Amino acid sequence: MEPSFPRIEDPSRLPPLADRYELIEPIARGGVAWVWRAHDRTLDRPVAVKLLRADADPTFASRFAQEAQTAARIRHPGVVAIYDAGVHDGLPFLAMELLEGETLRAQLRRVGKLDAATVRRLGRSLASALDAIRRAGLVHGDLKPENVIIGADGEPTIMDLGLARAVWERGADHEDAIYGTPGYLAPERHQGAGDHRSDIYALGALLFEAATGQAPPSEGSPQWASLIDPSIPEELSAAIARATLPDPEERYPTAAAFGMQLAGDAIASGTDTQAIDTADRETVMLKPPPPLAPRTARAHRRRRWIITALVALLAVVGAFLLLGPAARATVPAVEGVPQQRAENLIRDAKLEPSVELVYDSVVAAGLVITQDPPDGARIREGDTVTLQVSLGPRLVRIPSVEGLSPAAATQELTDVGFTTIDRQRVFDATIDAGLVIGTEPDGEFAEAEEPITLLISKGPDLVAIPSVEGETKDDAVAILRGEGFVVDLVREESRDVEEGLAIRTEPGAGEEAARGSTITLVVSKGPPLVDVPDLQCMSKGQAKDALKAAGLRAAFEGSGSRVVDQQPGPDARAPEGSTVTAFLGFGVFC
Fold first, then answer.
1. Which CATH class is domain 101-288?
2. pTM as predicted
3. How confident is the model at residue 552 (pLDDT cuts 50, 70, 90)?
4. 49, 423, 442, 466: which is deepest, by most CB within 10 A?
């Protein structure tokens, strides 16, 4: 008999939790906690309050505090936000973002399964959220349809971070205990191990269920999705199959890489709304069976081998007695054919297909790469034809190699799985000659089988500075820029160089500088300006001497013995060496 809501059947009789949160109505019940719709009186906003059940395992109390600390490290719209944590009447609680919508489990109950395009969108969004969890140094540990809320806009949000762990190797709260949900639990989790790739497995299992309408098996990995529903594209089936491979090393390196694969060509597929009856799958604590004692194990293997051999012998004898000499069949040609069609062709030929999933950078995901025996071979009916089916290219993360030696950078690339590493030397003004600038391609991920090039610095590209002396400012700037320099313009007075013409460069002409570096171009402002003396009432000789002393030339106009006017006037400034005109008269007022 399921327990009722503990101590809070009538929330109106309770004081607000922490004098802040008013419980309104229960909205969800889990294995260890209840979730209530509530009102935050301090900030005047709706919230969800998660309250530990009174009959829950006491060890889960510590998980509440851990869940609050865990969620505080994640900032992503696809991960539920935790606002506060506290204790009420001895029961821990969390105040969190109130998500409006329905769980993915409820949606699947309502529509049966999702079309391929929706599965892809769902997978990309959840992969992005899981990658944010990974970047926070965490793994979720219990991703399943019950822990995903689908909002009104169709976008999913991951909730329930109570099982999240910084590293699974720290162990469970109970000796030999494993927390999780069968069907979504990666094989390594049964051994008490796991990392972010365990979440990738859970996401693959979730997408398998969303695409097929069938819950993933509690034991073993899900089968190829398109074998269950032929309308599921082979590329989507291949992506899900890779995510749920038993060996974590063979899965996608990160959830982001899984999301990239799901972001491939869109696949049009109608929605099949056949109903399914799938109950909520609760998180449980599992205990692996104890290992067999050595003698018992050996005896068990020996008996199993004997039984297997007898069964095989009886099958052969029975087939010979019933059928006589074995009938022969011709192996059909299936290379380049989608997996499901290939398997159907082989079965139609009265043969049995056996599939091996392998990475391939040439053959598209979901297509047959090779077959053994080859097409046209004559073999016995019922024999096996082995198919190698492509998982698509194997993507690996490109490590940062800037500033490393070529040997060290090559080792970094080799360690992550790159097999063909080329080198190219290029000029660079910022990285010392002989060190690595970066890679080409330079994105976050690349195909492991594709060539990757190390870009190695040759140092700055040195060129000789051309002579521009006597050139106009515009011509000098064009010449210097044509050699790849950046020009810094400076103006300077000069008695020798006409205004607007180039005087020199710094560094000087003929010296070498790095292409892309800055060259200073000095342009003449003309001669310096000097003060014009007052020549009024001076004789012609006096005026000439005064102008010479000021660095100016004299010119006279008119007749008379005294200067009565001048141009430019007294106290003006004129270029050194320029001419001042003095006008002569009789000087009546002198």
1. mainly alpha
2. 0.49
3. very high
4. 49
